């Protein structure tokens, strides 16, 4: 049986990225800096009105899988696409990056998901996502052999929007824990936390989730507090390991009473924040599954995120392993 460092589960999405000004967001009622779920009609309307765009395979957990593979990790992915043009793009891209992806596609049905991402001058991204085929991910797509063979199963909080995906996550987590492995999740978005706060806390407190990734806003939202230290105190009690990012202020990794403050990687230019949190998780999970000290895991996360924000698009364009070796974080 193949062994994997990480199995990632997420919404398989192709990103369509375009620049716009603030007035465009206001004119089209787009919530800045958030992920907004939209239907097929609105997806078509926004696509018709957006400027020149770049298509790039995305999806939060898919980005993380690509990052782990770029670092040299063995990684698998569950996610649902259709047998259409965008589905072919997504499948090609993730396999080309070295990720094991064997989820069966949909035929003659709902199209592959796409996210219209609008970048304003301040490099903030506003995502408008049509979930399409993603809503059909279900327990029948769980490959037990992969679920049992990965040291860590990692899934995105966004999966709590498609109803059948919840069952798929619970089935996968069961197989992972039966095999003595761990389960991680990212909270994904403050609005996602608002929708599923009680369920996310139950996943953590009930032992379904061992490791949590969040940014500062999501951590505060989870505990409905404006006190960041209070949010850190509570999240450290609700899971075995918590990794909380703070953009240019770096990140904090907590394991019980153990606390590591990680600096952000200095950057030359800010191009696009899309995928930064996903690549941070990739660096941390790669290091964690290789047994590295938590501060090194955090520095790997900062490196991957720092490289990500200096490019357009969420998937690694640099060889992350080479970059990590040059930074002295891993050996060749």
Automatic annotation (TrEMBL):
UniProt keywords (A-Z) are: Kinase, Transferase
The record's listing under InterPro entries reads:
Carb_kinase_PfkB-like (IPR052700), Carboh/pur_kinase_PfkB_CS (IPR002173), PfkB_dom (IPR011611), Ribokinase-like (IPR029056)
- Which positions fall inside the Carbohydrate kinase PfkB domain? 57-315
Q: Is Transferase there in the keyword field?
A: yes
Q: What is the lineage of its organism?
A: Bacteria, Pseudomonadati, Pseudomonadota, Alphaproteobacteria, Hyphomicrobiales
Which Pfam families does the record match to this protein? PfkB (PF00294)
The organism's superkingdom is given as Bacteria
Organism, by scientific name, is Limoniibacter endophyticus
Q: What's this protein's name?
A: Adenosine kinase
GO molecular function annotation:
kinase activity
Q: Which family does it belong to?
A: Belongs to the carbohydrate kinase PfkB family.
């Amino acid at each position: 049986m193949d062994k994997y460092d990480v199995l990632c589960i997420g919404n398989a999405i192709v990103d369509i990225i375009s620049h716009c000004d603030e007035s465009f967001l206001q004119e089209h009622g787009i919530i800045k800096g958030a992920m907004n779920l939209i239907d097929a009609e609105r997806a078509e309307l926004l696509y018709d009105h957006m400027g020149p765009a770049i298509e790039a395979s995305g999806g939060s957990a898919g980005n993380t899988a690509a990052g782990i593979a770029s670092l040299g990790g063995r990684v698998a992915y569950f996610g649902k696409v259709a047998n259409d043009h965008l589905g072919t793009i997504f499948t090609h891209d993730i396999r080309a990056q070295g990720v094991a992806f064997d989820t069966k596609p949909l035929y003659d049905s709902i199209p592959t998901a796409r996210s219209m991402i609008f970048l304003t001058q301040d490099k903030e991204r506003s995502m408008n996502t049509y979930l399409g085929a993603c809503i059909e991910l279900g327990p029948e797509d769980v490959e037990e052999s992969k679920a049992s063979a990965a040291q860590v199963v990692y899934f995105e909080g966004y999966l709590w929007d498609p109803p059948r995906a919840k069952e798929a996550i619970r089935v996968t987590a069961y197989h992972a824990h039966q095999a003595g492995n761990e389960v991680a999740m990212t909270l994904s978005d403050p609005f996602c936390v608002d929708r599923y706060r009680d369920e996310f806390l139950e996943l953590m407190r009930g032992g379904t989730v061992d490791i949590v990734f969040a940014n500062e806003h999501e951590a505060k939202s989870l505990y409905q507090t404006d006190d960041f230290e209070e949010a850190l105190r509570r999240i450290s009690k609700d899971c075995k390991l918590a990794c909380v990012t703070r953009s240019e202020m770096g990140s904090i990794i907590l394991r019980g009473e153990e606390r590591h403050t990680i600096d952000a990687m200095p950057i030359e230019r800010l191009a696009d924040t899309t995928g930064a949190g996903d690549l941070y998780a990739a660096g941390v999970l790669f290091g964690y599954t290789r047994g590295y000290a938590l501060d090194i895991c955090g520095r790997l996360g900062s490196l991957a995120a720092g490289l990500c924000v200096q490019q357009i698009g969420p998937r690694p364009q640099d060889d992350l392993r080479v970059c990590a070796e040059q930074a002295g974080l891993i050996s060749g």
